[in-house]
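We treat protein structure as text, and this decision shapes the records that our systems exchange. Such a record has a labelled line for the sequence and another for the backbone structure tokens. The record that follows is passed on verbatim for readers who wish to inspect the format:
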Amino acid sequence: MIKVSIIGGGVAGYSAAMALARSHIDVNIFTGFSHGGQIVLAPHLNNYPGIKTSGTELIANMHKQVLDWNVKVHEDIAIEKICLDENLTLIDSNGNEHINDAIIVATGKRFNKLNLPNEEKFLGRGLSYCVLCDGPLYKNEVVGVVGGGDSAAQGALYLSDFVKKVHIFVRSSKMRAGEDYQELLKKNEKIEIHYNVAVEELCGTEMLSGVKLNGDVNVELTGLFISIGSDPQTELVKDFLQLDPQGFIVTDNFGRTNVERIYAAGDVVAGKYKQAVIAAGDGYTAALTALQDIRKKK
């Protein structure tokens, strides 16, 4: 029987598991210690077609769905080593070995945080790590963006199309964003850039109402987007899979990596857009590709 293991329990991982399980093969999914991935941070999904729910509920539904197809879900078990042997053996955090015909890496990425006391409290209550996901909720409101790179600049420009005002908070004396983006920011009357500042406190009771900057400066706003980068979770594969300059896994259009029988999907893959609906498509595509490649060799 064909055996495939999926490393990662987010949208891409569960989508891949569903595609494989429907073909009645032996599927194992290892969620690691952060079941669900970054999507569980989203209290409201407004950009997933046909679904209006939370990230947590989406993952719970996906989890139940793959169980109905007899996928073996190993919760709170991480993969510690991938052996590039004939069996593509995986060694998990309990020391158990799992042999495979193929492996799909869907370990995702981790957003960098401000690490402020109320950060978790205000998540989904004015605080977000995804402009594209949550930005449209703040039409005609005053919002802020923390960061000085391209993603912060792109986010601010995107928000300026429908919000009342955008504050950009930059720690240094200049932005790292490309000159073209900086020119657009300067010309945009809705955008105000604050240099040499750090967000030191998130203000509000139940909902975010503002931020306190260094120098005891208060800025009133109803939405704050953290755009200070993210780290792809590639520690497990960085020594043998091809990565792009930012550390994301390089694949072809079908999820194949540079190592035969190892595929990748979701936010851990190099690509411009990181969205749940794209991760779901990536996972399904990688799964179908893996299945096709395996059957050709059987």
Summary: The radius of gyration is 21 Å. The CA atoms of residues 23 and 173 lie 56 Å apart.
